[in-house]
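Posted in: Structural Biology > Protein-Ligand Complexes

Title: Requesting predicted complex, zinc ion in pocket

I'd be grateful if someone could produce the 3D structure tokens for the following input. Sequence and ligand are given below.
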Amino acid sequence: MTRPSPVIAGLLLRCPHCGKGKLFKSYLKVKDRCDVCSAKLGETDSGDAPMVFAILILGFAIVGAALFVELRYMPPYWLHAVLWLPSLAVGSWFLLPLLKSVFYAVNYHYDAGEDLTGRMQ
Ligand SMILES: [Zn+2]
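-- Reply #1 --
Done. Output follows.
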């Protein structure tokens, strides 16, 4: 059995081993085992990378959009809060599982589990 591309499996929120089973059992909680191939999934961690990239991506997009709207239309500040705070919340809600799944699948693909961190080569 060939493993799926970690990026494709991650973008589809699927098991990085078979590419078919769902990765998450809740919003950001990874299943212990895949329902389809029974691969152990709970041992790999994606670390802080999904949050860092979500901050960078959303920060760039929302600050850029806010600057554009401010320079172009000069709306009152309350309108900025009404526009950008929900955009940030909704953007984070959709982006975090996607990024976590991609980083998890890449770590799984390259076998970068926590058990390798302390080993001497
Ligand atoms: Zn699987």
